Amino acid sequence: MLIHDYYTEVDEREKYNVERVPAIILGDYENAKMKYYGNPAGYEFVTILEAVKLLSRGVSPLGLAVRKSLRKVNQPVYIQVFVTPSGPQFPSVARLAHAVSMENTRIAADVIEISEYPNLARMYNVTTVPKTIINQLVQLSGVISEDQLTEKILEVGVKSLPLQLE
After folding, report:
1. Fewest CB atoms less than 10 Å from the CB: which of 3, 11, 41, 71?
2. How many Å apart are CA 137 and CA 58, to the nearest integer?
3. Does this model's pTM top 0.70?
4. Which of 71 and 19 is assigned the larger pLDDT?
């Protein structure tokens, strides 16, 4: 575990694309795409433990069909899952977002604890949790399945390449 000072270690902050503190960054040194913003208290502590377990195994728990579908993503996809520490169902959505980020280097997932960032919650009109935002465009409320999340990821993350005529 490495600890960095957000305010003085600007190079590290930019390298990991850390936008706020407190932040827990998970992943290997060059490819840390899983973030948890806030204090992982209550049920959300499970999110951190599950992400560590997920990374240590090196394979996501997603179904084979979903994993194959996520390989099609050819555009950057940024998932934000807004949570609170008081709900036992929230870690499942956070775990799902972190799992899909393992399947394609173009997918990144942040879990954001809203009591730490109320302005961010207001900006995205988070009135119920969990709330999932994809590329700041697509919003999903409540507990979602891997198929639902994958469908929305593919909608924003797969762009057809222009046909080249010879």
Report:
1. 3
2. 30
3. yes
4. 71
